[in-house]
């Protein structure tokens, strides 16, 4: 009788560390955190280039690339703030620097970005599509002519051969329209922070249906999600440490509106006028003060190590294949790495 071969060991669950949102943390410190995440066996070191103009993604990813050897390096960049030629040039350079480890995550250029950067607004979906198409063409190293509504390129190319002509491009998406677009354009999708596992499940289902409409296998898409995380010895301390960050999700009316369009059951529309009034009167401090605790605990992974593990498992159960955990405070980093680390992978 032929002996039965042992079943292959299951692939380890992927997890990434997300950085860049806390303005008190320097790029050098973040690069050190990326290296620590690599030693702990994390899959990805991710940098969020935010609307609030914290550190620059190009500088940060260069530092991450020089500080690490194995982890995937990802970053968000909003289209229209750089030209598609510059974005392709940057992506190819960072990919070369890191030895082929870059994931470029592009986000739509919205009215908020236009107002903050003093640039005219163009249709977000059209602009995003044209950027993705033209960046992909440029990364082949060939000459590109592109005639779109927003992007106009006339016989241009990179003056060096990209290490990889197929650098993965994910789409950052928070709204229903954005998720439908991501299913059409992206090698993956990045779901927004400040959402519950129930939102994630609704977003994944929307992605699945959108893929089926265009005869695309939904399994082709990496589903990553930024997860605001606060890990402490007790739940009360953890909630207090992350309350500020949850409050920032309600400073613009468009943010909760986009999440409700997908299906975020935590947000009660009747609460939003009260939140807006508090912010108008007293800024983020006043908004943070009146924010119900259920918003904090529902839209994050917060509590003890066991609480946070269980919460991340809920995001995975909802269909997230790569949770990107973002600590609420620098002192939480070591505990987060211990909670999710698997150094035998390194």
UniProtKB/TrEMBL annotation:
| Keywords from the UniProt entry | Oxidoreductase
Taxonomy of origin reads:
Bacteria, Bacillati, Actinomycetota, Actinomycetes, Micromonosporales
Q: Which domain of life is it from?
A: Bacteria
* Classification via InterPro entries: F420-G6PD/mer (IPR050564), Luciferase-like_dom (IPR011251), Luciferase-like_sf (IPR036661)
For this protein, the record's Pfam families field holds: Bac_luciferase
Please give the name of this protein. Methylenetetrahydromethanopterin reductase
Domain Luciferase-like intervals = 23-321
Q: Does the keyword Oxidoreductase apply?
A: yes
A GO molecular-function descriptor: oxidoreductase activity, acting on paired donors, with incorporation or reduction of molecular oxygen
